[in-house]
Automatic annotation (TrEMBL):
<dbReference type="InterPro" id="IPR043129">
    <property type="entry name" value="ATPase_NBD"/>
</dbReference>
<dbReference type="Pfam" id="PF00480">
    <property type="entry name" value="ROK"/>
</dbReference>
<dbReference type="InterPro" id="IPR000600">
    <property type="entry name" value="ROK"/>
</dbReference>
<comment type="similarity">
    <text>Belongs to the ROK (NagC/XylR) family.</text>
</comment>
<protein>
    <submittedName>
        <fullName>ROK family protein</fullName>
    </submittedName>
</protein>
């Protein structure tokens, strides 16, 4: 039997018809609506189109969401989703099992299920984008926290001397902001991130090389801080930028450099693995599916 999954993003909602093992039978996307009424109409259309051939519905959503009750407290940049009882609303139209999960946690869950965190008891997924999302696998369980806010790495304070919001990690270590700064240095369009990494892979001009190293160092610092608190075995990096091998290499280099600069880190903390997520554009859909499967088994 198959399942309908949706990944709600700021620009598009990605949909997938997926089987029990995580194989995609069909995938498509629709532009994200700008009102709750339009969103409800779109989701209802997709559900009713596939209702006869699916066993359940799984949704990945930005912001703070209550997986147990299917309640969206905050929807990230999508303000129309704030305080939305999506499970209660959808139950008026279908009796199919329904599951809801935060997008960063969905990425971690998919990697732990069949990706690059498989068989890892303690690991994390860090998702680089406009902000920094994440998901934590602790003692073989996805960790939600007391208020379903675990993994919201954007809200970590990185620079106490800075003013809001620049002191927050989600601002200073935003991959979107890095690309904007890099394209400005190169004098190309801000959409042309391919030129940024083409230059990095070749012989980058010194200002770009410095900017790239600083950016990757900030991610390496985040990894070390998470490791110090949680004693992780492995971290995987997600988000569109994670498809660049040079990014993963440089984060690893900066991680090793930070350990070498502080002997206590080498003496006290075992080195962890840093890798890219196995599932890039599919991670949130697969995580939504696995959360649904777990809920249906409970």
């Amino acid at each position: 039997m198959n399942y309908l999954c949706a990944d709600i993003g700021g620009t598009f909602i990605k949909f997938g018809l997926i089987d029990h093992s995580g194989n995609f039978l069909h995938r498509w996307k629709k532009q994200t609506p700008r009102s709750l009424e339009e969103f409800q109409a779109l989701l209802l259309f997709e559900v009713q189109s596939y209702e006869a051939s699916i066993k359940g519905i799984g949704i990945s959503c930005p912001g703070r969401v209550d997986t147990k009750t299917g309640y969206i407290h905050t929807g990230g940049a999508l303000e129309f989703l704030y305080d939305f009882q999506i499970k209660k609303w959808l139950s008026q139209y279908t009796s199919l099992p329904f599951s809801l999960i935060n997008d960063g946690k969905a990425a971690a869950l998919s990697e732990w299920w069949i990706g690059n965190l498989k068989d890892i008891e303690n690991g994390a997924a860090i998702v680089l984008g406009t902000g920094i999302g994440g998901g934590l696998i602790l003692d073989n369980h996805l960790y939600n926290g007391a208020h379903f806010q675990a993994g919201e790495l954007s809200f970590m304070i990185q620079d106490h001397s800075a003013t809001a919001p620049t002191q927050l990690l989600g601002y200073s270590s935003s991959s979107v902001r890095f690309i904007q700064n890099a394209t400005t240095l190169l004098g190309v369009s801000q959409d042309d991130y391919h030129s940024v990494f083409a230059n990095i892979e070749a012989t980058p001009p010194q200002p770009l090389e410095t900017l790239f190293e600083q950016y990757c160092s900030s991610i390496a610092q985040l990894i070390i801080n998470l490791q110090a608190i949680l004693d992780l075995e492995k971290v995987v990096i997600g988000g569109g930028i994670s498809s660049q091998d040079s990014l993963i290499r440089m984060i690893n280099q900066q991680y090793k450099k930070l350990r070498q600069q502080e002997p206590l880190l080498n003496q006290t903390m075992a080195p962890l693995q840093i890798d890219a997520c196995a599932f890039r554009n599919s991670a949130n859909l697969l995580g939504a599916l696995y959360q649904l499967l777990l809920d249906m088994e409970a």
